[in-house]
Each structure stands twice: as structure tokens, then as C-alpha cells.
Inverse folding.
């Protein structure tokens, strides 16, 4: 059983308009009895003895002098008590003694954790938007306090990183009353409007009861159902005012609450710094000094904590794909506590996932991984992250052979996307072992992925031979399909993909047959499909590479939403909806656009449009398109922005963009490294810095590229 005792610190309602900013937090202790019956109650008695011994030492009164009274007449005594408690709590926590003397009649079996939920400067953004209902909006009445209270209780009971399977809980929570002037009708109405009632009045002050057993109970009931923890046993559910005038018999019942109050006071009194980040570091340090444990539970009331909850919940529901996806997404979080959560909490979830052995759940994660690998909204870095964490599960559990094939097939795609042809090759070889467990059409797709590998290794002749072989297989399958199912339908998505890929290889070889293959491929697809848009982008890249502006302009409007004008095409991309992006990748479409702009249309933009274009790309990290700012081909997009900036005589901006080409793609291998190197050579040659151009050539991964990069890095590699 765990016993939870919590108290608070700070002006949650914002009543205090002046003075130094102070941290807002709910903190206290968790006592884990380690399964020993009555150990928690014995610990409460031990605490009572400890507090009395401290009071005797400093000649104060217990429990009165644990807290400043309403009159403020015992402030000096409270200070003396807190000072002594601060000095001796580490000994008590760690050894159960005071001044080296044993405290209590019975040995301690359990252990303490200091706990806290500290509000960040932003909080949880979803709960402080104007559109958020007043029932939960943090800026309305005392909702912030209640939301924080629910959050910490949830972390301790349902998402506890040190005990995910808490089976029995004892709650000892403090009630909270908020004083509001009776003549402040607006504020009084705020509280009554959302169901808060005032329990009593003193003069012109109404005391609204914010935290009580009913709303805590309602929140827990809801969480029990959400998490399917219907087996959770409640030993005691106590929500009450902390009684500081208790007699010797009653004081034992409040000792955990007294301790929670003491912890809050000590942490706040000794905080360091002026910002939330500094306070948080200070609280973590203090908690460790007090408890001597790295297993204290310090959480932030912040968006990053919502990611933690989502990831843990998904793990508990055995949705390992979602859990890992949430973890990856958190890496892009702008939270100032992202690093803390990645140091303290997120690795624990990764560790839990690495140890699972549920075959059905792992196979489902593999299916989701494969589906994502073949989607139009994928993030290359995320694919590799997912592969890295799912691979041990696939290897150490007995999932079926077909699921293993599906996993390694998707992994080929993952490593193709980052230009790691060696890893892609390894995954392909494993696929071959399980090929008999998949459909012929599926295996043809896998072989098509091998063509990509060969292109990434600049083995164009081999790639062409394999692409042609695939086309032959497609024709044989089409003939067989005609025998089995009589149909006048000649279109075939599978054959269209094979033709499209064959066109790609020809394009890398700068062979005019590329155009024919691409056009034949387009005829196989629905014009609204992903495949059509992908193949059309390949064709447009070919026209740009061949400097064929006339043909490019014939097909570009189809690709850019029916827009002929270059600036209208930019606006189409800039305003592309999420639905549109399911059919057409934003970043790959923008790659086509910016490459064509530099190649064909340098004279099409006036100074105002140039300024808007550069301003837009500089603001992408802060825009709705920021989630697309990852992976290939951003290294090429930024290269073309660098070339554009130089052409428009913006040298400083050009240098900024060319530097970004080297950092924007985090997860990458040889093929992308070579693209980046080629871009540097191209840029520094253009600006006349031959020294840096020659230095950039040294970045190529093989001698062949160093000698002949201009004829190798063509088409979509430049």
C-alpha cells in the first residue's frame, strides 16, 4: 500500500497582484509500506514521536508551532521548528532516528518519496485557451489548483514510474478554502457558476470550499474507468483540514499531513533562482538532500507532462506503437522541461517497452509501423526511432513469420528514407528469409525498395536491370490476373509503381526514356491518388534536371492545385490543408517548387515577394508547418534557398541557409551526407570560395564522387 499526503504552496488564483513571483506547487510525500500490514500506521506514530522530539529540543509546542496561526503570533516558534526539521529530516527519512536515537516502537519496513507537481510558466496550454470551457479552464476561479491536484494524484496512483501497478492506496489530502469578499459579486458568481459552494462567512469574507472529498472522489472515479483500474483498493479516503490544535491522541492521525506541510514550507523557503526552471532544479536538489533518494517524484504541470501521461497510458493499454510515437513527438516539444523529462521519466517508458513479451500486442505494433512507413505523412527520423525500439521485441518474442516479414519490409523503407543503404540491405536480406510467408505482390514491393537502395549507392545499371525485371513480373501477374478474372480494366497500381520506379532510374541516368516511363505510370493511377502525385513529382524533377521548362510548365499546374503562376503555386503550398497533405507531401512538393523557382523563375519575383518568401521560410519553425520540418529533403530545400538568397544579393541570409543544410536532417547516412556535401560544393563554387568548395569535396563518402560528383549527384540528388 502507498499512503499519499499532499499540501500546497502559492497563489493559485492570482489574488496577489504585487510582490515577488513565487512558485505554484502541490507537494508532499508518498509512503510505501512494501506490503507490510499496519506499517503505515506505525510510521504515523513514529512521525508523531519525531515531531514531539523536535519540539522538545527547540522548546516549542507541537503541533501548534508547525504552522503560523491566524493571529501570526507564533511565527518565531514556527521558524525554529522548521529549521530543526530541515536539519534532521534527512536522518529521519533515511535511518528512522533523531540525533542518532531510535524513534518509534517498531522497525520501519517502508520508505518515503518526496512528491511535487510544479506549474511551469505556461502550464498545460490546452487548459488555458480562450476556447476551453470554464469548467476546466485554468484561468477560471480555482480550476488551476484542482487541475494540478488531479494531475499529481493521477501520477502517483495511475502513472507512477516506480510503481505502475499500485494496488492499494491511502489518501490523506488537505481541503482547501478560498476567501472571497462578499461584495466582489463577479468573483463570487464565478465560483457559484461552476458549482463551488461557500461553507461559511466571516464578516465580509465568504470561504468557498474548492478541494473536498466529493470532487476528489469524482475525479478518481473517472480515472478508474479511463484506465480500467477497477481492481484498485482504497484503504482510506480522507480529505480534511489540517488540525494544528490536535491533542496528543488526535495528532497521530495528522502526521502525514503535517509532514506534507513541512515539506512544502522547507522546499519553498530554500528555493534558489527567480524562474520556474531554476526553482525546479532547486526542488529536485533539495528533495534529494532531504530524502537521499533518486526516486523522488517531481513532475511539472506542463505540456510535456501531458505527453508523459499519454505515453504511459498507451503503454498500459498495450499500444506500444502509439506510446513510442508520443515519445518521439516529445523530442520536438518546445517545453523548457523537455530535457528533464527525457533525463528522468521518458527513458523508463522505453525500458518498459523493451521488456514486453505480449505477442499479439507486438504484432499489432508491427502492423501500425508498416502502415506508417507507407503513409504520406511519415517522418523519417521517427521511422528509424520506431524501428530501433521495436526490433528487440520482434527478435526476442515468437511473433509469426509474416509479422517478421512486415516489420523488416517497413524497416527497409525506414533506412531508405535516411539514405542508409547498408542497413536497408540488411533488412532486405532478412525479408528474403520470410518471403514465402507473404503475397507475391508484397514481395515485389520489397524488391522495388531494393531498387531505391541501389540508386542510393549510385549503382544505376544494376538498379535499371532490377527495375526492368520487376516490370516483367508485373506483366506476367497481369496476364495471370486476366486469366483468373476477366476484366476490361487495364490499369494496375502495382505496375504503375514499377513503371514509376523504372522512370526514376532512367532519370538518374539522364536517359530520355524516363519521360515515357513516367507518363505510362501516370496512366495507371487515379489523378487524386498519392501514387499519381508522387510520380508527377518525379516527372517534374526530370524536366528541371533536363532544363526542359516548356514540358515542366505543361505539368506543373496539375501538381500545384491548378495554379499556373509561380507565386500562386507558393500560396497553394503555404496554405496546404492537412487533408491535402494526405495526398501530397508538403515538403516534397515544396522541394519541387523551390528547385524550379531557382532553375526557371529567378526573374519572376519582385522585391516584396522575395521578402515574403524568405520571411516565410525563416518562420517555419514557429508555424503550423513546423511538424513537417524534419528529414530529407530539407537539406536540399535549404540549399536552394541559399542559392536564391545569393542570386538576390542577400549574402548573409544565403550563408545562414547553407549552414542549415548541414544540421536540419538529424537522422541520416551516406546518401544524404553526400547530398549535403554536393550542395556545399555547388554553393561555395557559385560564391567563388574555391577553398571551401574543395574542403566540401572531402566530405564525400567515396573517391568516385570526389572525382565525378557533377555527373553522379543528378536528378533528385541535387
Amino acid at each position: 500500500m502507498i499512503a499519499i499526503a499532499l499540501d500546497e504552496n502559492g497563489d493559485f488564483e492570482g489574488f496577489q497582484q504585487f510582490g515577488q513571483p513565487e512558485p505554484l506547487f502541490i507537494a508532499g510525500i508518498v509512503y510505501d509500506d512494501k506490503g507490510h500490514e499496519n506499517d503505515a500506521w506505525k510510521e504515523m506514530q513514529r512521525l508523531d514521536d519525531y515531531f514531539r522530539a523536535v519540539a522538545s529540543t527547540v522548546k516549542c509546542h507541537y503541533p501548534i508551532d508547525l504552522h503560523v496561526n491566524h493571529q501570526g503570533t507564533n511565527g518565531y516558534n514556527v521558524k525554529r521548528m522548521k529549521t530543526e526539521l530541515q536539519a534532521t529530516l534527512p536522518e529521519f527519512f533515511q535511518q528512522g532516528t533523531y540525533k542518532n536515537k531510535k524513534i518509534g516502537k517498531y522497525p520501519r519496513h517502508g520508505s518515503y518519496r518526496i512528491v511535487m507537481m510544479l506549474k511551469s510558466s505556461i502550464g498545460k496550454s490546452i487548459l488555458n485557451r480562450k476556447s476551453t470551457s470554464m469548467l476546466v479552464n485554468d484561468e477560471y476561479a480555482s480550476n488551476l489548483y484542482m487541475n494540478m491536484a488531479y494531475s499529481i494524484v493521477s501520477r502517483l496512483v495511475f502513472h507512477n514510474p516506480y510503481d505502475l501497478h499500485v494496488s492499494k492506496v491511502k489518501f490523506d489530502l488537505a481541503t482547501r478554502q478560498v476567501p472571497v469578499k462578499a461584495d466582489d459579486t463577479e468573483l463570487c458568481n464565478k465560483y457559484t457558476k461552476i458549482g463551488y459552494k461557500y461553507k461559511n462567512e466571516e464578516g465580509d469574507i465568504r470561504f468557498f470550499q474548492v478541494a473536498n472529498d466529493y470532487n476528489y472522489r469524482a475525479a478518481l472515479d473517472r480515472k478508474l474507468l479511463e484506465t480500467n483500474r477497477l481492481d484498485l483498493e482504497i484503504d482510506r479516503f480522507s480529505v480534511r483540514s489540517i488540525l494544528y490544535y490536535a491533542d496528543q491522541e488526535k495528532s497521530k492521525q495528522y502526521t502525514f499531513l503535517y509532514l506534507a506541510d513541512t515539506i512544502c514550507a522547507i522546499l519553498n523557503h530554500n528555493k534558489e533562482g527567480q524562474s520556474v526552471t531554476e526553482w525546479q532544479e532547486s526542488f529536485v536538489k533539495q528533495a534529494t538532500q532531504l530524502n537521499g533518494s533518486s526516486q523522488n517524484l517531481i513532475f511539472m504541470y506542463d505540456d510535456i507532462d501531458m505527453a508523459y501521461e499519454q505515453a504511459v497510458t498507451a503503454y498500459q493499454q498495450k499500444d506500444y506503437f502509439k506510446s513510442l510515437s508520443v515519445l518521439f513527438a516529445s523530442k520536438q516539444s518546445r517545453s523548457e522541461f523537455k530535457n528533464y523529462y527525457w533525463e528522468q521519466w521518458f527513458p523508463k517508458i522505453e525500458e518498459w517497452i523493451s521488456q514486453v513479451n505480449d505477442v499479439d500486442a507486438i504484432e499489432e505494433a508491427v502492423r501500425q509501423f508498416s502502415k506508417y512507413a507507407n503513409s504520406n505523412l511519415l517522418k523519417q527520423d521517427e521511422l528509424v526511432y520506431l524501428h530501433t525500439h521495436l526490433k528487440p521485441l520482434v527478435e526476442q518474442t515468437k511473433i509469426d513469420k509474416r509479422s517478421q516479414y512486415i516489420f523488416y519490409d517497413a524497416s527497409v523503407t525506414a533506412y531508405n528514407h535516411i539514405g542508409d543503404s547498408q542497413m536497408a540491405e540488411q533488412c532486405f536480406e532478412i525479408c528474403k528469409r520470410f518471403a514465402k510467408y507473404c503475397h507475391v505482390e508484397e514481395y515485389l514491393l520489397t524488391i522495388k525498395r531494393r531498387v531505391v537502395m541501389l540508386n542510393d549507392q549510385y549503382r544505376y545499371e544494376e538498379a535499371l536491370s532490377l527495375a526492368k525485371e520487376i516490370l516483367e513480373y508485373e506483366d506476367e501477374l497481369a496476364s495471370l490476373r486476366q486469366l483468373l478474372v476477366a476484366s476490361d480494366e487495364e490499369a494496375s497500381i502495382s505496375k504503375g509503381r514499377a513503371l514509376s520506379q523504372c522512370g526514376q532510374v532512367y532519370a538518374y541516368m539522364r536517359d530520355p526514356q524516363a519521360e515515357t516511363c513516367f507518363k505510362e505510370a501516370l496512366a495507371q493511377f487515379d489523378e487524386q491518388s498519392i501514387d499519381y502525385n508522387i510520380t508527377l513529382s518525379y516527372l517534374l524533377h526530370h524536366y528541371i534536371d533536363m532544363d526542359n521548362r516548356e514540358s515542366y510548365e505543361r505539368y506543373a499546374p496539375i501538381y500545384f492545385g491548378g495554379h499556373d503562376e509561380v507565386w500562386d503555386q507558393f500560396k497553394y503550398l503555404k496554405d496546404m490543408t492537412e487533408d491535402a497533405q494526405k495526398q501530397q507531401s508538403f515538403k516534397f512538393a515544396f522541394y519541387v517548387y523551390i528547385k524550379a523557382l531557382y532553375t526557371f523563375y529567378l526573374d519572376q519575383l519582385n522585391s516584396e515577394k522575395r521578402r515574403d518568401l524568405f520571411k516565410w521560410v525563416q518562420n517555419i519553425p514557429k508555424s503550423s508547418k513546423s511538424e513537417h520540418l524534419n528529414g530529407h529533403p530539407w537539406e536540399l530545400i535549404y540549399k536552394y534557398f541559399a542559392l536564391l538568397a545569393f542570386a538576390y544579393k542577400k549574402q548573409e541570409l544565403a550563408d545562414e541557409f547553407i549552414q542549415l543544410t548541414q544540421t536540419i536532417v538529424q537522422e541520416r547516412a551516406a546518401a544524404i551526407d553526400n547530398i549535403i556535401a554536393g550542395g556545399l560544393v555547388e554553393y561555395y563554387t557559385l560564391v567563388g570560395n574555391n577553398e571551401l568548395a574543395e574542403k566540401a569535396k572531402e566530405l564525400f563518402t567515396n573517391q568516385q564522387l570526389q572525382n565525378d560528383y557533377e555527373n553522379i549527384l543528378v536528378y533528385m540528388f541535387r
Q: What stands out?
A: The longest strand covers residues 111-119. The two ends are 63 Å apart (CA to CA).
